[in-house]
Structures are given as C-alpha cells and as structure tokens.
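Interim report, section 4.2 (structural modelling).
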Amino acid sequence: MRILVLGGDGYCGWPTALYLSNRDNEVAIADSFTRRTWDHELGAQTLTPIRPLTERLRAWERVTGRVIESFVGDILDYEFLSNVLQAFSPDAVVHFAEQRSAPYSMIDRQHAVFSQVNNVVGTLNVLFAIKEFQPDCHLVKLGTMGEYGTPNIDIEEGFIRIQHNGREDVLPYPKQPGSFYHLSKVHDSHNIHFCCKVWGIRATDLNQGVVYGTVTDETSLDEALVNRFDYDEVFGTALNRFCVQAAIEHPLTVYGKGGQTRGFLDIRDTVRCIELACLNPAVRGEFRVFNQFTEQFSVLELAEMVQVAGKRLGLDVGIDHIPDPRVEAEEHYYNAKHTKLAELGLTPHLLSESLLDSLVNIAMQNRDRVDQNLLMPRVNWRNSRNDRRSKPAGVAVAAD
Amino acid sequence: MRILVLGGDGYCGWPTALYLSNRDNEVAIADSFTRRTWDHELGAQTLTPIRPLTERLRAWERVTGRVIESFVGDILDYEFLSNVLQAFSPDAVVHFAEQRSAPYSMIDRQHAVFSQVNNVVGTLNVLFAIKEFQPDCHLVKLGTMGEYGTPNIDIEEGFIRIQHNGREDVLPYPKQPGSFYHLSKVHDSHNIHFCCKVWGIRATDLNQGVVYGTVTDETSLDEALVNRFDYDEVFGTALNRFCVQAAIEHPLTVYGKGGQTRGFLDIRDTVRCIELACLNPAVRGEFRVFNQFTEQFSVLELAEMVQVAGKRLGLDVGIDHIPDPRVEAEEHYYNAKHTKLAELGLTPHLLSESLLDSLVNIAMQNRDRVDQNLLMPRVNWRNSRNDRRSKPAGVAVAAD
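Predicted structure of the assembly:
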C-alpha cells in the first residue's frame, strides 16, 4: 500500500512512518518542520536527541534497506500539497500535520488563531486535494479523545443513538472540547464528515487518547532513528512528563485534585492503530470514528504509578497538587468506549511496571538535558495572554 | 444601552442598527464593506438601490435626529477591533460580520477557506476583545438554523437532554451543517461556548432561520435608508428570489423535489429578536442558544405561495423543479423548537398575502435592475471547483 504520512517528522508521525515502511508499505513523509521551530520558540528541547529528517531517513535506508521518500513543505500551501498527492499517488493519507498542544493554543490570541487556522485550513486543503487528485484515497485523520470533553454519560465512538420525543436518530456525538486546540479538532471532524457526504471521500477519524512512551521496535534499531520525547509543560504529555520529573526527583506536578480521567495508549499501539485503519479502509462516502486508546487512568493514578516506579529505581519522588492551570472538571464520570480498533485486531500494550521503569530510565540517561524551567505550567486557561517568555532564565517559577 | 453592530451595513445589520437606534439605544456600526465587494466579484447587485454608509447615516440623522457612529475596518484586524471596543465601550456587541452565503462558500477551495477563516477568526477576535477590553459586554452572535441540519428527531434550542445506558446529561445539540459556510457557524458556536466557560463571557447564539422581506419601519422613512434585497443564486434567500422571479415571469426555481423544510422569519422579526436578546442578556459565563425563526415551510410550499401572489397581481408564474445543486435531503422530518424568543416577548409577523404582494411589487418596481443571468444555480455542491464567471454575459445557463 502507498501511504503518505503528513507530519511524519513528529512524535507520532515518525514512528508511524517507520512501522508502516517496515511492514512492506511504500511510505512517504511530508513535513514542514514547524514542530521543530516551536521548540525554539518555547526554549524547549526533546529529552532524547533527535536527528534531522534527512539523517533519519538515511539511517533507515542503511539499517533496513527501505526507502522513505520525503517532501518538505507546509500543507497550508495548496500547490505543495497538490504536487505531493500527484507525485506520490497514495492509497492512504495519514494526517498528523497539526498543532497538537492544548497549552500552546491557549498562550494568547495569536496562538489560538494560529492553532485553529493551521489545523482547519490544513485539513480543508487535504480534503480538497484528495477530492481533486486522488478521490479514492483513504484519509486517516488524527483527532483526539479531548473532542468529547467529560460528559456525564458514556462516550461512544463518534456517533450516538438518541431517542427523543418518541423518535430516534443516530447523530454525531456532542462535543465539549476543552481548549482552542481541542476545538480545532472538533472543527476538523465536522468538516471531514461533510466532505465524506458531499464528495464521497472515505475517512477515518481516530480520536486518540494521550500517548506515552517513545520507543518502538523500529526507532530502537539505530541511534539515528530515536523518537522525540517531550516533557515541557506545553508539549509534554502527562505520563512522559511525570517520568522526567521522577528521574530528576522533582515532585510530580498533578493539576488540582488529579481526578481528571482520560484515555491513554502506548506509542507502539498508536502505530499499530494507524496500520489497522489503513488495512481496513472506510468505504466511499463513509466517515468513521474510532476511539484510539487502550486504558483509562486519572492523572493522580498515573502519578502514583510513576512514584512507585521511581521508588523501585531508588528515586525520591513526591507528588505536588498544584492549582489547575486549565478550566476542567477535577472529578467527573468517565467511561469511553474503545472496541472498534480491538475488533480490527489491536492487541494493546497495557501500561506495565517494565514500561514505566524503561521510561524513567530513559529520562535518567538524559538527565543532563532536562531543563527544570520547563516543568511548571505557565499557560493559564483563565488568561487571554500568558507571557511565557517573560521570566528570566534559570529562575524557578510557580504556576501563574 | 450602548450597542455595537458588527456588519451593520449588511442586509440584517443595517435595519437592526436603525431599529435599535430608534428605540433610544446608543448605536455604533463597524463594517468593512466586504459584502459590497462580493457584489462586484459576483457581478450582482442588490435589487433595491442602496446608498453608501455615510449617506445612509447622514439621512438617518436628518430624518430622526439620531446619530449612529461608524467605524470602518475589518474585525480580522485585531488592532482595529480592540480600538473600537475601547472607544465605544458597548454593553452589547451584535455580531453580523460574517460571510453568510452557503453557495459562496462552496464555489471552490479559496472560497471555502476564506469563509471559514473569515468567520472563525473574526469571532475569535471578538471573543478575545471582549475578554480583554469589555469583559461584562454581552455578545449577541448570529448563528443559523442550518447548523442543525435535518435530524430525524425534534430540533431543540442549542442543547438536548440525552438518556444513555442508564445515565443522563444535557449536552450541545448534535450538528450536521450542510455547507462550508454552515460549518463555520458550527465552529463559531463551539468556540463561543468554550470562551463562556473559561472566561465568563456572556453570549447568546441566535440560530436564525431564512430571512425574507427588506422593509422595516425605519428603512421606509427615507429613500436613502432603503435596505438591500438580494435575489442572485449566491446571496439571494429563497423567498426573496422567488418574488423577483415572479415579477419578471421567470419560472420559480425549486431545487429538486422542494420538500426541503426550513425555518423562516420576516426581517422585521430579525430586528426585534436582536433587541429582545440585548434587553435580556445572558448572565456571566452563560452560553445561551435561541432558535430565531417564526414558521416552517418547505421550499415548494413557498414557491406555491409566491405563484398564487403572482396570479393576484396578473403575473404568469410557473414552477420549475431543477436538479438540486446542493447535497441535501429533498424530503425529511423537520420539527424545530422556537419558544425562547416568544417567551421573551416576540410577536411574529407571520408570512401573509399582503407581505408577499408587497415583495413582488418591490420586485416589479425594480424590474429593470434584474439580471436574469444571476437566477440559475451555478454552484454545485458535488464539485470542488465551480467556475461561476466562465460563461459569457447575456447567455442563459442551466445548472451545472
């Protein structure tokens, strides 16, 4: 199968491209490296040193004999995107090429507008390009479990049957996203659904949970294939950040009570889910939604698991409940369905002691690269302007 | 009350500004005149000759002694918008300043992207400006009944109580919008709802039906106050377009079977609904949705009513069922609630013979301004590129 991975240089995109390439697909990556420039903007770096894409791809060919083609450009540039689709003629487009951080989208107006325009227009361009140049191609789009928010009823996979005043219908599941970023994904979902209906596009919207881990079978083949691992307050996901905090014996920063419950998955399951979606495409005109996660945890449960893992490794790990910089329920009902990918064959890597140990170990090995200034939240949802860069370097800061 | 009308030079904004001014409010208009440039782009003109905004405002002062302040600029320019909010300090912002045509948004990729960016970013800017400069101000935002689509259950006003697996919650009503324009309004609704939650913004989302009519008590005070009246396939609303077709004895163009049922209202009710929303503001943090229409009709029912009105006036009016350029159900269940504005005091102007006669009469008086090339649909939802301007002038064209 010919698979184009948009955003293939990123945290999920890179291991996905390698995995798909290793499973005998013809893979191409398109990326603008915007994600790398955000590191410069935020003064942050991935914990694990990563190589430029050209080096990564050279190493991949050297180690496996497999070639991944790369296209450098921004999908907001429709001419670029059109040329890529025509040059590569993909059977599936896997679309990771979005701004994916909730705090980044909440920094201020410019970042909110950027996040929504970047994500919404990028996805509109992908839809138009598929319609115009590759109409039978399957769009595999990364959404987020955060589109649903935390309703007081079970979360279904994209649609819900509603009985009302003696009638019934199956309708899109109501969305209550919790940041300008999460909102952008809701906008995308509505746009994609519409294009499936009017143009017969085939699409799978993968509402992914919070991803943890960094290593896959492929990224561990060579040092030059190492994946990024973000631990900063803006791009670091909860569990990864806790592991880094444990490694340097920094208290784990639990926002508020920590009862916030979310779906989580191992990055090795991310890559497999993408493969399963590609292998089992939506039919023409179908807009299909899968909830892509394997287990639910509350943030406090995760912190306690990391604390235990840290103890096993001889680390002194505390837990600090700090004021929640987000506006969200700190205790709530949460029961989200996630059976469709399992039905297609997903065998999950559940969160284990050994995985936690290995994550903390990776963090310990890279301890000298940890910048403590990046751990505490500086983006408060209640402010419309968060001056992240105004504090002098080297000074520890509390939550705004 | 101090009321800022964004888009106050347009079809709904202009009569709203006059009405609110006449009822002793301090009114200001902000407008970029983008709507007037779209006329040039489309080669269309309002049937009724309208004056430049400066002339309109001068006439209003001459006739009533009342002053409406005007700010010329685009709300996509945040500096402009910030300055307006600080200079005028409104108690309410009435937000009409969006691209409001479904066919316009479906012309091609550029128009789709423009419609969504223009509407979403404009509204984001309004939300940020209120938060930063006028946090207690009430946002009265024009949405559309088209956000809901045509579900097989009753349409509620913004939210629906859902029982599911033994639990229940009141959740945002599921949205199934039918064009890139309607999608932009759904995106807005989600963005506004979120800002109410995180920043305590007070907002009313008015999901308006299809507006008909052109004359209000205020616009009829002087010839220079005349409101626009669009009949072209892109900006003309169904009933207005039928009246113009009747006046020139052009067959009424019903798309498909004509069973498409929608909510409709008289423009005199539009202006009153806005007033009612302003007089009864949402509380801080509240996101409130009213369905703003007074009667439901199918498109074919409307056409038949116009046909009868035409006969009364001695006109020979046929009805043509032409292929539906839109992708939509041509027959469907439709029952939308609309009690909240009535509870606040709306006494509707229901569609009457005399109103239909007067609309057809206006069209007959302006018969020489009708361009027949603008009547037939040239924007087909099934195409991603519609070359509207490619046909030679003066040649009658069929639907694509």
